[in-house]
Amino acid sequence: MTIKNNEIELNDEQTKALNYLRSTNDNIFITGNAGTGKSTLLNAFLDSTPKKIAKLAFTGLAADNIDGVTIDSFFAIPYNCMNEELIINIDEASMKIKLEVHAILIDEISLVNCFHFQMIDKSLRKYLDSTKPFGGMQMIVVGDFCQLTLEATKNFIERKILKEHGGVYAFNSTAWQKANFQNISLETIHRQEDSELKHILNILRDNVNKLTYKDLALLNSNVREFAFDPTAICLCSSNKNVSAINNTYNKIFQNDTASKSYTATSKNYKGKKPNDRVLTFWENQRIMLNKNLYIDGELKFVNGCLGRVLYIFKDEIVVQFDNVSKVTIIHRDKWENTQLLLQDGHLMKTITGTFTQFPLKTAYAITIHKAQGQTLKRVHIINDEFFAPYQFYTALSRVRSLEDVSFQFPVTREQLQTSLEVIKFYNNLQTIDLQNLDISTLTPIKPVKLGYNPFLDEPKEPEPKKVIHDPLFDELEDVSFDNMFNISFN
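The structure assignment produced for this chain is given below.
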């Protein structure tokens, strides 16, 4: 059985998890294998909860996907900062306004290292003036420690974390251990129906030592020499390989088909540019959206959606996104540098720089990180180097069947990195029994009233209408300026 929640389709397991989420103020950890629908559950919860929630993630990509902000931005943590005093001594007035929320949600929790998770706890306890874990704030963390793992960091940072906390993952922190998370683990895999692929993925996740020579031979029966196949997306562990493959495709197709180039405009934009200064597109080109796309004020497509170009014009590009029947017209979009300033007791975003370009990139190859959360029709994995645990697992789990994947090189056991620490964590994890959960006993919680916080886009209470008092209008009631003049000011 399935239900539809604002056009989001949920199965029984997800429905029970959603009802549980609505009925509790406990700290929650949502996890599950690749393809079990964690993002679907999360979106259903965010669409239906009356709670005011601060939505955070470690990376800009993940933050965009939930229409949130990065952890570093929210807590004003300097890049690669490991100085505790700098982190927890930030502007108190700004922080207290940010924390006018019922809960904080962190997506892709596996990317948050132990030190920063501990600092989140200390910051919340300080600014909420409470000794409770996270200052008594409800924490909802989402992710799979067997997929996206900690990004490569400088060795001295990793050594410092290991020395002080005994591990680099968020679950190694004292804050995690004291938070008393209620754990929701989704078990039903929706993406794969191929029993052989499911078998191999379970082994890669739980105990790679159980991988037999027969399993390895099955994977290596899909080794293919690289060929220019526009129907397959190449998954790479490094941006260097992604750029090399996409540039090669660009040279081939730009000579064969009519193309058009578009130059970005930039004004005081600081930091790494979010897209190339000059982009070239042609018909049938494989592309990826690299910014959330809003249509008529509503989020329609998230950063990372894949598709192909149908038509190119001077000021618009017509795109067919994968698994979407209707075409989408893409216009130039704007990225902004923003600064948070306290004005009249409210935290306001001030734009300090802009970069304007089409939010599309060539996507014959993408990084494994960019592919996270996606279901891909066909992939070619460039398995020459993997620098982090579970990268191979994450790449392989993007497809529905072994017939949909090929490898550049023979798969070796050395490529199948896992983490004994993560395996031990999941083996000891006690989860809510969703199968036997009686949702009739669960009552949705009505959140307490909070102050207004424009930083989190909470709609402001409408001001009372300005009623005109004049003898000429004695017979009229509640006449407002809006009603008198049918004018809309934007």
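Interim note for the steering committee: The chain has 16 helices and 24 strands. The longest helix spans residues 239-256.
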